[in-house]
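Figure 3 (text version): structure tokens given as input.
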């Protein structure tokens, strides 16, 4: 896998609502309580975090593609160190995905994401990739002993792109429960830092953190999200769920 040698590759809701959790408790201060750094286990509701950032087919200007399709499916599993309050990389799932509606990538898409036509042509379709992802996820979770949750930057990945992608495979994909709840790191960033961020780059800048790789590379963005999580943890952030999909 490029650039990140520590990592390795190894019926559907037709209608849904997004529910924004308004009751979460976040310690949001520029001068965090010192105890929050040394005693995160008292407050943190999750111990494992599946950091995910999709990339999708796209075009520029008036030529926007509809529907968009996921073409990169990266997810990095991190565990929270209850003593130090930081996150340790445990495992990684990464696959490119072959689009079926618009199989030829636009020049704009390749320029933005770095994903070439060969990379998707030689990759499996989304339903196969998602099946492999679910197996990987299940191999790294024990729901009886630990709580885990998906983490994204924004609500687009799960609340929009994932839902629309699954609609293309109504006979082969059933949305699992663990994909229905997630943390929007932007929301926790706003509650902790006092300002709502534009995106990953602005969160890195605000926390004086170094950017890893390229923005709009899914796997690189996952690494950058983990960097942001570490910064928020040291400021006393409580990593609670912010969004949920509910069938209606």
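Below: residues designed for each position.
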């Amino acid at each position: 896998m490029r650039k990140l040698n520590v990592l390795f590759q190894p019926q559907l809701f037709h209608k849904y609502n997004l529910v924004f959790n308004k009751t979460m408790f976040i310690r949001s201060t520029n001068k965090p309580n010192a105890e929050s750094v040394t005693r995160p286990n008292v407050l943190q509701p999750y111990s494992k975090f599946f950091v995910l950032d999709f990339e999708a087919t796209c075009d520029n200007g008036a030529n926007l593609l509809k529907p968009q399709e996921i073409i990169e499916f990266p997810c990095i599993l991190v565990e929270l160190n209850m003593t130090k309050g930081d996150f340790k990389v445990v495992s990684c799932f990464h696959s490119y995905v072959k689009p079926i509606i618009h199989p030829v990538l636009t020049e704009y898409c390749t320029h933005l994401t770095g994903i070439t036509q060969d990379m998707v042509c030689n990759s499996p379709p989304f339903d196969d990739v998602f099946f492999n992802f679910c197996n990987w996820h299940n191999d790294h979770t024990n729901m009886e002993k630990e709580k885990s949750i998906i983490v994204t930057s924004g609500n687009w990945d799960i609340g929009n792109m994932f839902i629309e992608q699954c609609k293309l495979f109504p006979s082969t994909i059933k949305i699992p429960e663990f994909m229905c709840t997630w943390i929007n790191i932007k929301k926790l960033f706003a509650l902790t830092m006092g300002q709502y961020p534009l995106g990953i780059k602005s969160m890195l800048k605000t926390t004086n953190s170094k950017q890893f790789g390229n923005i709009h590379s899914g796997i690189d963005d996952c690494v950058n999200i983990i960097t942001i999580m570490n910064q928020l943890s040291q400021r006393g952030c409580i990593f609670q769920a912010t969004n949920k999909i509910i069938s209606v």
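The helical segments are 34-38, 107-113, 117-121, 126-139, 156-166, 185-193, 200-206, 218-234.
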